[in-house]
Design brief:
By secondary structure, this protein is an alpha/beta fold. Helices cover 44% and strands 14% of the residues.
């Protein structure tokens, strides 16, 4: 039986190989299961709904404010639209718009499974990353159109965020300049561009005009940070909140929704240490109109809400001077500073950690200070083309493109 003998070294090697084969087999089975589940998710949907000529995809319910004014115009024109959302409680699902057929298609891979095999002429979305990760271009979609979800840059997304769209709807000339620079550096074909304005800002401005002046209220400071390592709460957290409470003013903290997903432990700790009180409130309203309206000054970082606040409500901001790591973003490829960061210093005062002890004095120096009014007017003219016409112009583009695609088919 000597031929059955295996020395310890060889036995150990064979055991390692067997473990590797076993592990690889398990991985292959799991991968196959995932692919089948995603594929079945896409195929299980009603085929008729997938063949709507115009489809809107929203990856989160908070973007309903972006799509709602456009959907209202499309609905008024009798245009049938399939509205696919990854939020089971998206307000679109309960909207009284007969021609807008809203449907929850699941989250993450389940949603991508539907999108990757979608049948439609145009897919319209705010979601970046098409054809980069899980979300792939469907061979049954003729035209992908991207619109920004805030006043700002096309180069503010994670790397390659808008590279594989066919068209972008913009609101400022500098946005096309950023786009063309990225295309040139990456040797991409030029995308179609249409200037339409910013529909949701049009609606917000109209709401503000109808709401009229505020009744007497406590002077209110709104802390509205972005999320991630460069965000205010990640960098300054407890120290920032203590400094705000020390001002004696009414404080509203409105974290970015992504913080509750990606920074859940930090948020839990901060909300436990600084619970809501008569002076402090944590705001998570889906609609930010009222909290922006009743706030007298905003403290933020590089969040797009800064421009909602300054452009629509015409109020000053304090921004943290934290340096943003551009490496993961499209802006890393640009020669010049992106518009939001170059414009921010003109709209308010920077705040460093050393200045937190004198935060009240900084706030008082900005309130009702006319020095920043002209800068807000300039920023408004640069980033908000066709005020009041955004939804109509967006609907015009989408319907005209549908007709063009039908004529070419």
């Amino acid at each position: 039986m000597r031929f059955l003998y295996i020395d310890p070294g060889t036995g150990s090697m064979l055991f390692t190989v067997l473990l590797g084969v076993f592990g690889a087999s398990i991985y292959a089975v799991r991968s196959l299961f995932l692919k089948l589940r995603v594929r079945s998710a896409g195929k299980s949907k009603d085929k008729d709904k997938q063949k709507a000529p115009l489809t809107i995809f929203s990856d989160d319910k908070r973007y309903w404010n972006v799509f709602k004014p456009v959907c209202e115009v499309l609905n008024s024109r009798g245009q049938e639209v399939s509205y696919l959302t990854s939020s089971p409680d998206d307000p679109a699902l309960k909207a009284d718009l007969p021609h807008i057929h809203a449907e929850f298609i699941g989250e993450d891979n389940q949603a991508f499974g539907v999108l990757n095999s979608l049948h439609t002429d145009i897919l319209f979305s705010t979601t970046p990353g098409l054809d980069v990760y899980q979300w792939k271009r469907s061979k049954h979609v003729k035209w992908y159109v991207h619109t920004l979800h805030a006043a700002g840059n096309v180069a503010g997304y994670r790397m390659f965020g808008i590279d594989y769209y066919d068209a972008l709807l913009l609101s400022g000339k500098f946005q096309e300049q950023q786009l063309r620079e990225l295309e040139e550096q990456r040797h991409l074909p030029a995308k179609e561009v249409a200037y339409v304005g910013i529909p949701y800002l049009d609606v917000m401005r109209e709401r503000l005009l109808k709401a009229g002046p505020l009744e007497n209220h406590e002077f209110t400071v709104l802390l509205a940070p972005s999320w991630g390592e460069s965000g205010i709460l990640s960098r300054y957290g407890e120290k920032m909140i203590r400094a705000l409470l020390a001002t004696g003013y009414h404080i509203v903290i409105r974290p970015h929704p992504q913080s509750f997903k990606s920074e859940a432990k930090m948020m839990e700790k901060l909300m436990e240490e600084f619970p809501a009180s008569d002076q402090l409130e944590w705001n998570r309203d889906n609609d930010n109109f009222e909290v922006l309206r009743r706030s007298d000054i905003m403290i933020s970082d590089f969040s797009g809400v800064v421009y909602d606040f300054t452009l629509v409500f015409d109020k000053p901001v304090i921004y943290t001077a934290a340096k943003l790591d551009k490496a993961p973003y499209d802006s890393y490829w640009l020669k010049d500073e992106i518009w939001t960061l170059s414009t921010l210093p003109k709209l308010g005062k920077p705040l460093t950690e050393e200045m937190l002890d004198s935060l009240k004095e900084t706030i008082d120096s900005l309130h009702d200070n006319p020095a920043y009014q002209q800068a807000r007017d300039t920023a408004r003219s640069e980033v908000w083309m066709y005020p009041g016409e955004g939804a109509e112009r967006t609907a015009d583009y989408l319907i005209n493109k549908l007709h063009e695609l039908e004529a070419d088919s």
